[in-house]
Amino acid sequence: xxxxxxxxxxxxxxxxxxxxxxxxxxxxxxxxxxxxxxxxxxxxxxxxxxxxxxxxxxxxxxxxxxxxxxxxxxxxxxxxxxxxxxxxxxxxxxxxxxxxxxxxxxxxxxxxxxxxxxxxxxxxxxxxxxxxxxxxxxxxxxxxxxxxxxxxxxxxxxxxxxxxxxxxxxxxxxxxxxxxxxxxxxxxxxxxxxxxxxxxxxxxxxxxxxxxxxxxxxxxxxxxxxxxxxxxxxxxxxxxxxxxxxxxxxxxxxxxxxxxxxxxxxxxxxxxxxxxxxxxxxxxxxxxxxxxxx
Length: 294
Description:
Blueprint: H1 3-14, E1 32-37, E2 42-46, H2 66-75, H3 85-90, H4 97-110, E3 115-124, E4 133-134, E5 142-151, E6 157-162, E7 187-190, H5 197-205, E8 209-214, E9 236-241, E10 244-252, E11 255-261, H6 277-285, H7 288-293
Parallel strand pairs: 3-7, 7-8
Antiparallel strand pairs: 1-2, 3-5, 4-5, 5-6, 8-11, 9-10, 10-11
InterPro entries: PGBD
Protein name: DDE_Tnp_1_7 domain-containing protein
Pfam families: DDE_Tnp_1_7 (PF13843)
């Protein structure tokens, strides 16, 4: 009798929970590594293959209490035994990467829009994890930081990337697995955490429009466009760089905003709001991830 059949007989006899067709899930090898018995408590450790889809997860049909369900969830492991320690040190999210890629592939093939927003998000988590982050400006403060690409028009997530810390040659641009060919002619909006002149040139080479705020301490920002106390309130200064417009707008007495845009070849002042058209466009597009957080 195979190991998987023995496990099925044990679970059926004890009537704790039932696993149907455990030997027909679709794995090349036996999915069950170990079953530990401790006072009628069983922990099923499942070795999920990297090429396994979500439709191959084993269903649990018996009714369980929330406490028992949490015990089983804690015991699940999404690991590949063949992964070496060297690969683990290079990629901290190696055990859930296949799930992240599969999730992004489904979203990118389901939702499509012409306006996207890129922003960071913090999901509350108090478990033991080596890449938990503390962000005091977020409501939860401690949790898992993710880079989220959301649609600005239909308010849904299109792609997501888990942030595990700073790494060499790590590109934080979140683009679904289908590539950039699908996003020709669309518009991306992001804040000063991602915006840079290099990002603008990269998206411009892919025929993708871009608009976002820029930090005042960037090298490409001239001194005359920086914040100055003697500068007149609501004043606007514009500079054109490689087909893009860089607009400096003093919205408050103690705050100056820089808008880098590929959409607006010519910046004009809106007569109703008394603001540049690039500022109004950024305010209308930036709320994609914020609405999802709510």
